[in-house]
Amino acid sequence: MTSSRPNAGGARAALAAFSALAALAAGVPAGAAPTSPVQRDAPARADARDPLESARWGDMHQLFFAAQPVVFDARVKVGGPAVAEDPLNVPISVDASALDGVEEVLVFADFNPILKVLSFRPAGSKASLGFRLKLQQSSPVRAAARTGDGTWHVGGTWVTTTGGGCTAPSTGSGSPEWQERLNDVSGRVWPRVDGGERLRLRIIHPMDTGLAPGIPAFHIEDLSLTDATGAELMHIRTFEPVAENPLFTIDLAAPAADGRIHARGRDNNGNRIDAWVTR
After folding, report:
1. What is the DSSP string of 75-112?
2. What is the pTM of this model?
3. pLDDT surpassing 70 at residue 12
4. Domains in the chain: boundaries
């Protein structure tokens, strides 16, 4: 009697041959362990697990990026203290210069009542910026760098703090001195060993969030940095969570023309910023 049961050995051999052909077509060496799409992708897609494991990442993704392509990318580096003793002045550094063609960088904090901290467009500068911010509570601080293909590359770090930085009044708001020095600019430019220059710029401004009782929002909105020929070096949009008397550190890709940098901008009350910084 002839059995109608399939030949198991033959089926297994056929399946193995098919798998080998599929692997070869996909560029996987024979005998290599299969990998998931997330493992093959570098950097990881934003629908992968959030490296910072924030309960609010889904909200951040939808609010800031919607249907735009987003990836978690270790090349976008965000530096800050593991524990911030002063929630009104948390030092943060953002560096996306390892990416090519960065057009815009957005910085935000998942658990702040005002999420956006600042954004900047590098032009004649590197895609990096140092600054200080206010945190209301412990939170991831993230930077998203948009490259020319429209993809947002996201990096970040957790900062632990006692909190209250966004609802506390600025120290300057209670002093009459800031009215006399409002939007005063001081700065310094010095050469870097890589051939570029570093600019450190400080602006006198209370940067009130509007969340402290009886104190309205009052903050710098716009800051443009150009060289003596008018060529743009960086454009910065600032929001309420930037710390009082903002201090920015900017790395220029090449020495500024004529050794001078023009800082111009305004706050949300229309007060102007206009100053030159020289070597």
Report:
1. TSEEE--SEES-TT-EEEEEE-TTSSSEEEEEEEETTS
2. 0.84
3. no
4. 45-278
Q: Compute CA 192 distance to the chain's CA centroid, rounded to the nearest angstrom.
A: 23
Give the pair of three-digit tokens for residue 202: 């400080």
pLDDT tens-digit map of 72-81: 999 999 999 9
The average pLDDT across 254-269 equals 93
How many CB atoms are closer than 10 A to CB 43? 17
The sheet with strand 185-191 has its strands ordered as 77-79, 90-95, 128-133, 247-252, 197-203, 185-191
Query: In degrees to the nearest 10, what's the CA dihedral of 51, 56, 58, 61?
Result: -80
Yes or no: say if 165 and 254 are a contact pair by the CB < 8 Å rule: no
| Site of tokens 């940098």 | 261
pLDDT at residue 37, as a whole number: 33
**Rounded distance, CA 96 to CA 251, Å?**
12
Q: What is the Cα Rg of the chain in Å?
A: 25
The DSSP 8-state label assigned to residue 242 in this structure reads: B
Q: What is the 3-state secondary structure (H, E, C) of 111-162?
A: CCCCCEEEEEEECCECCEEEEEECCCCCEEEEEEEEECCCCEEEEEEEEEEC
CB within 8 Å of 101: residues ≥ 6 apart: 147, 148, 149
In terms of C-beta density within 10 A (0-12 exposed, 13-18 middle, 19 or more buried), how is residue 40 classed?
A: exposed
- Predicted pLDDT of residue 14: 40
CATH fold of 45-278: Immunoglobulin-like (2.60.40)
Question: 215 and 208 in contact (C-beta within 8 Å)?
Answer: yes
Q: Alpha-carbon distance 13 to 128, whole Å?
A: 56
